[in-house]
Amino acid sequence: MSRFLFPALFAALLLASVAPGEAHSQPRIGVHTGLNFDGTDILFGGQAQFGIDVGGRQAIGQVGFDIYPLIEDVFTSRINGNVLFNLLSGVGSEIYGGGGLMIQMSRFDLPEGSNLDETDTDFGINLVAGLVLSGADRRYRPFLEVNQTIGGGTDFAARVGVFLKLTK
């Protein structure tokens, strides 16, 4: 039963993200790099943020991915779906927090003739906090984000990147 709970919740989150809200004024897409402190692994990825309504409250939908290309003999990738709330907005900057779901997929390079599985899939819950700064021309916005994942490869990661506005 619990094996199907995480995929069902993730699908519900993605469906909720299809209906954009009006609070988060501009959708944005970004790229990031970071460090996973559990294994001190470097990560690269991207994410999109857009406005959604959650029970009549304005929120930010976030869908993103991370890849870990430098781990020896393993290729790991993650898909994240989060619902974030704007906690504080000030002179061009925002502080947000929230959470969601994570799916981690790993592929292992195993020795010839090994009977072990070559792939593994894990699910986890994200706790996310971030800071978005104003950009010089407001078409780009640097950000810093921290993410604690519970379950399915429990770890702590920090990301830095830049968001680009999709509209003028």
List strands and helices in order, with pairings.
Elements: H1 2-16, E1 28-36, E2 41-54, E3 57-68, E4 74-90, E5 93-108, E6 119-132, E7 140-150, E8 155-165
Antiparallel strand pairs: 1-2, 1-8, 2-3, 3-4, 4-5, 5-6, 6-7, 7-8
Classified by CATH, the class is Mainly Beta
Q: Termini, distance in Å?
A: 46 Å
How many β strands by DSSP?
8
Number of domains: 1
Low-pLDDT segments:
1-23
- Tell me, what's the shape? elongated
CATH architecture designation: Beta Barrel
Secondary structure tally, helices: 1
Percentage beta strand: over 45%
Order of helices and strands: HEEEEEEEE
Q: Strand order of the main beta sheet, please? A: 1-2-3-4-5-6-7-8
The main pleated sheet reads as: 8 strands, antiparallel, barrel
Helix fraction, binned, reads under 10%
User: Whole-number average pLDDT?
Assistant: 80
Q: What is the radius of gyration computed over CA atoms, rounded to a whole number of angstroms?
A: 17 Å
What is the name of the CATH topology? Porin
| Coarse structural class | mainly beta
Description:
It is a single chain. With 168 residues, this protein is mainly beta. It is built from 1 helix and 8 strands; from the N terminus they run αββββββββ. Strands 1-2-3-4-5-6-7-8 form an 8-stranded antiparallel beta barrel. 26% of the residues are buried.
